[in-house]
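User: structure tokens for Enoyl reductase (ER) domain-containing protein, please.
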Amino acid sequence: MEVKNKYVSIKANINGAPEESDFEVKVENISLLVESESKEVVVKNLFVSIDPYQINRMKSQSSSQAAISFAAAITPGEAIDTYGVGRVLVSHRPDFKKDDLVAGLLTWGEYTIVKEGSLLNKLDQDQSFPLSYHVGVFGFSGLAAYGGFFEVCKPKPGEKVFVSAASGSIGHLVGQYAKLLGCYVVGSAGSQEKVKLLKETLGFEDAFNYKQETDLKSALKRCFPQGIDVYFDNVGGKMLEAAVANMNSFGRVAICGVISEYTNASTRAAPEMLDIVYKRITIQGFLAADLMKVYADFLSKTIEYLKAGKLKAIEDVSQGVESIPSAFIGLFNGDNIGKKIVKVADE
Ligand SMILES: NC(=O)c1ccc[n+]([C@@H]2O[C@H](COP(=O)([O-])OP(=O)(O)OC[C@H]3O[C@@H](n4cnc5c(N)ncnc54)[C@H](OP(=O)(O)O)[C@@H]3O)[C@@H](O)[C@H]2O)c1
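Assistant: Done. Predicted tokens:
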């Protein structure tokens, strides 16, 4: 038996800002007959993650592509892998049964044939949370936020914390974890609506719209008259330069991502290196995949905070495979608030 699988691919490498015309929705036939000794699992995709790092995989060349397998180059015309949640349709493996809910490396499409060795975990679905939470707050976005903040930034209660792209998937969680620890938290975001959300709904002490600031160093000086102890960087470029200029001695900077540089390399900027030396600042990049050692702690604390109403997981969900290109393009235009997810099929 066969099903038609609709999936998204790129027509050619993308070396600037992505546009709708760079993508196509293709249709292929997938066989649901899996040989009894095969370790392949056929999954019907339900929710798929939309993430900025995919743009670096779509380029003809990026230093990230050789660094780790999940960042490998995407081949034009082929299905694009992504983290997601789905339901098992066919499996002869003892660890996955038909109708099991799973999270793992799926595709920007309706179905995925998950090969042996590829990331796939059975979900013990806690009915009190939406299934989509396993893509965002319980997935790599949540782990990057929690692990990046607590393990890399090593924050202490009362410290002054700055988060960029603060209303995004990772940023809105980092700010809330910092508030829960008892830090003073300021976020930057790209619209007044986002600034209002950070201050009025998520409890940040302050927030500013970076698009309306003529001088980022002054904006940060205004928000942090006593300096920044911790900077959780999602954007890089000029914001990193401005943040370092406002850091206190022994400040810590966690580089989660540098989205402002992904579609335009000319926006790269460098912090004042004398500040790094004389203020003894630590700057550390990290990958969520390195933080699995804190996964159990992250999950139990996050579930506890969500159940107690102390943490809000904001999602921005689009519908259907056809919406994937615009959902992805929107990340670079600031369209999303919270975790960007595409719902591919009903549960
Ligand atoms: N290290 C890891 O393991 C890891 C894991 C996941 C993600 N990341 C990285 O973490 C960062 C955030 O990812 P996310 O998944 O949470 O995405 P996200 O923040 O939900 O989405 C992207 C947001 O970035 C902002 N943005 C876009 N272009 C920008 C620019 N030129 N300058 C400043 N802000 C810009 C936009 O918000 P505004 O309206 O505020 O501009 C947009 O909504 C990205 O750099 C990503 O690559 C790292």
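User: Anything notable?

Assistant: The mean pLDDT is 97.
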